[in-house]
TrEMBL record:
It comes from Formicarius rufipectus. Coiled coil: none annotated. It holds the Pfam family Nudt16-like. The keyword Nucleus applies. Keywords: Nucleus, RNA-binding. PANTHER family: NUDIX T16 FAMILY MEMBER, TUDOR-INTERACTING REPAIR REGULATOR PROTEIN. GO terms for cellular component: nucleus. This is TIRR protein.
Amino acid sequence: MQMRFDGLLGFPGGFVDRRYWSLEDGLNRVLGLGLGCVRLTEADYLCSHLTEGPHRVVAHFYARQLTLEELHTIEISAVHSRDHGMEVMGMVRVPLYTQKDRMGGLPNFLANSFVGTAKFQLLFALKILNMVPEEKLAEAVAATQKPKKTALDQAGGAV
């Protein structure tokens, strides 16, 4: 995933004008600007999601399994992309574990703010690609929905 300029987490991508590009060609053009060395095909397609509202957007989600070497190459390439430091602040690896305290790792990560459908897409991919056992994924999601104690609460409310 990427940390965006607005502090939200999201996936690499962008808008594709279907009048000029096929979906995959447009996606690869946009990814080429930000990541350089990855090419997605129709076989990498996972799902689509329609965002309702005044600006209706269809978010298409693609995923590809990479070797650690390929991921490392993409991370290095991303730092040298045209958008790095302006639109994108950097790549972020999603923790696929939960620490013994049941909050560290994936639950804490899911408590971040995500752009548009990115959180839904992440959870869908983790489930459908069997990257996290379904019960562990459900526990991580549930942990983020519990009210957190603030530092003031933990200090006994004294000011």
